[in-house]
Amino acid sequence: DTEVTQTPKHLVMGMTNKKSLKCEQHMGHRAMYWYKQKAKKPPELMFVYSYEKLSINESVPSRFSPECPNSSLLNLHLHALQPEDSALYLCASSQVPERIAGHNEQFFGPGTRLTVL
Amino acid sequence: GESVGLHLPTLSVQEGDNSIINCAYSNSASDYFIWYKQESGKGPQFIIDIRSNMDKRQGQRVTVLLNKTVKHLSLQIAATQPGDSAVYFCAETGNFNKFYFGSGTKLNVKP
Question: Is the pLDDT of residue B37 over 60?
């Protein structure tokens, strides 16, 4: 199974709502990532988890709160978002980099299309 | 057909022609590079990668060239097919964890 799944596929929320995005993989990968992608722009790294611990936070506002409850799951909790946070949120997973001598392919999910009203 | 990456975000080629997509990267410490293909409504899909100790790597119908002197990366697609139509991103990293994506090039393949 080389698939990363993300739910929901689409999400519309108001600025006062609390919602969560979910990501799951069963490839045994111990590194998981959240990216944000605006229309016609490249993905931008938000968070990196390595062995279920947060290793990189790219200065993301606290209204985005990541969580990695186990090695297969990654969540992104959303609270008090702004309309400019509307974007495609992509999850990815890979083997932990220091264990790799060759390449480190990241497998991406299809994303959650988020609209903040 | 050939693109210049940031300055020509859309490349149109005829089916069967070869395509060349270019990418300029900025971090001289980057030592690992990946080309991704992103189709509409989907996440990026790995195409091919290259480490900085190589200057060329070939896959099936694709070749990646790396010129570290001028910090330039290119993706060559042989015999381009309609299914190759997508946005192509290069990504670079210096520590395998933090990948930075280039701005992307949209490839349109005309039948």
Answer: yes
